[in-house]
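# nightly structure sweep
# worker-07 picked up a monomer target from the shared queue
# config: single-sequence mode, recycle default, output format = structure tokens
# input follows
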Amino acid sequence: MSSITESVDVDVDVHTAYNQWTQFESFPQFMGGVESIEQVDETHLHWNTNIGGVHREFDAEITEQHPDERVAWKSTDGTTHAGVVTFHRLGDNQTRVTTQLDWEPEGIAEKAGAALGIDHRQVEGDLKRFKAYIESHGTETGAWRGEVQPPS
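# output follows
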């Protein structure tokens, strides 16, 4: 299992950063290797990725979501991964976005990439692109403010 934790400070308020993150279908605009995400319903996503020449198609479920605080998910088929993104207010117009991701590299290419830290650099780059994306827009492109309670 590979574990990654990366953070970025964005120059927007926590509400704006969180709202943009809930627009999953916009992820290809700032996440490298994400070809598309379809939001099937409030808690289910279908992902198509191509990272380092490895194509994956899988489903994920949002397992916990609290506005302006956190979004957690886990895969339900295909690749094995789970994670959480948290949002921390640093000031009126500054938010720390922290991503924690656990995933199971498959095959020799993914295992080698994880051993070399390529997965960490990918997540770090994605967060930097998110920062540039949200700061250049200045406002979110949409929002979903619903709550998802963790399973009992």
